[in-house]
Amino acid sequence: MITMATDGYDAVLLDIEGTTTPISFVHDELFPYVARSVAEFLEARWGEPEVQAHVRAIAEQANKDVAAGIADAVAVDLAADSAEEARRKVLANIEWQMKADRKIGALKDLQGYMWKFGFEGGELRGAMYPDAVAAMKRWAGAGRKVYIYSSGSVEAQKLIFGYTTHGSLLGLISGYYDTKVGAKIDASSYAAIAADIGLAPGRVLFVSDNVNEIRAADEAGMQTVVSVRPGNTPIGECAFRQSSDFMDIPL
Ligand SMILES: [Mg+2]
């Protein structure tokens, strides 16, 4: 049981990975979905304007990579290559970058775009810890507003919570924040979120597995609980409250 040192809170701000959702979710489910379906996806949707916009971004990045001497990069000439040739080269660039777990704009944008089809088509489901779902329902039912703050884009957050292993949870959530509001380890981000919600930081409870994020929220004046889940980085002794079952967090 966690004892709260304060007189409650009006809103809860939740991290996703390692908090509501297993930390391995993105690597175990979202990335493999793209890896196994990207070839077929490009073939089926190559002519679509939105797909072509992603193709142009991937090609532009690939040509920069070739110029920079990156060995695996394959040059793409969208004006000269046949559609089939261009598709093969674009795919080769996507595949090496995914194997290298590269975090680069063009690839991340395409991954996010493809996830939408995976969630909407029923092949992907947002993995949720049952106690996180129960606690979200309990908070919302008791008039505590629930917000999400994740490094994944707001669009991706809405997909994860819109299509979960427990159905859609969008009705429980009052708002979403990503790193457009600021980095998760900066206190100013939490101050900005509290201001946007319209509450004093002290009336917001932030839950995350990452102690650096917890420290930043604490510095901004928020209440905090560290999420302890299987597979999370062990945090050992720390000055912050911890929870492995969110139903134990007092209202
Ligand atoms: Mg996390």
UniProtKB/TrEMBL annotation:
SUPFAM superfamilies: HAD-like. Keywords: Amino-acid biosynthesis, Hydrolase, Methionine biosynthesis. The keyword Ribonucleoprotein does not apply. Coiled coil: none annotated. InterPro entries: Enolase-ppase_E1, HAD-like_sf, HAD-SF_hydro_IA, HAD_sf. GO terms for biological process: L-methionine salvage from methylthioadenosine. This is Enolase-phosphatase E1. It comes from Coemansia javaensis. The gene is UTR4.
